[in-house]
Amino acid sequence: MLKVAWSPVYAHPLPEGHRFPMEKYNLLPEQLLYEGTLQQENFFEPPPIEDQYILNTHESTYWDKLRNQQLTPAEIRKTGFPLSPQLVFREVVIMNGTVQAALFALEYGVSMNIAGGTHHAFTNRGEGFCLLNDIAIAANYLLEKKLAARILIVDLDVHQGNGTAQIFQDKAEVFTFSMHGASNYPMHKEISDLDVALPDGITDAAYLKALDTHLPALIEQEVPDFIFYQSGVDILNTDKLGRLSVSLAGCRERDRKVLELCKRHHIPVAASMGGGYSERIADIVEAHANTFRLAQEIYF
User: Fold this and answer.
1) Within its chain, how far is the Cα of 105 from the centroid?
2) Overall domain count for the chain
3) What is the CATH number of the domain that holds 137?
4) Which of 87, 249, 280, 290 is the most buried (most CB within 10 A)?
5) Cα 295 to Cα 300: distance, rounded to the nearest angstrom
6) What is the pTM of this model?
7) What pLDDT is recorded for position 170?
């Protein structure tokens, strides 16, 4: 069964006009239920994660400032969100969503978090709509519990997974792979284990060729026993921030390639949704929905 993390707190309201589309976190499950891709039993609501698992990834001084609402105005601006206790609570629920999704992936082969993919959160700070790093927290959880020994992070969001790269820069058990827009945010890139920087305006054929060039070889080389997939849909040609020109069909084919590789190699995969900033919320929801449709098609 495809198990999917979702909570009402995912759609935490933001000030009117804020460019981060929180409404997608309600619209996406509604669409998947309406069309019959998922049933209510597919969803689970994660509780907040325990502090100890946050502190396996993030510095205690940063976590204390964040949970006690003591970030400086400059630190708050860097996150892109107006800080509130509700926002921090949302974040710790999302973190456990990805941890629990990873555990379900070990059982069923694949699992999803409707939110997550917060790859701009560093050990000691938040950036770019990310306060804590869900994939990093979940990867460290699996390693600590000895549920995985070699983890591959496949980050296909249009923005480099700079926080994830920093967190795992000295951890041999985790290989970070980021395929992203070369000239997009962040302007200063960290060093992943493998970075593939794409030119503005890249279209489906060249994008998918780059993925085919690198991901199968990485799986053969690294032989991971678990994969985390950051499946951001800001690669779309409709995205306001993305600067790439991948079609909806191309984005769907990207997801197919990743999930089929995981299935073929019998590697459990947990997917987090990541970014998506198209003008029409329907484009964002449709692109994210494809990831779930493909998981059902390929695995179940």
Assistant:
1) 15
2) 1
3) 3.40.800.20
4) 290
5) 7
6) 0.97
7) 96
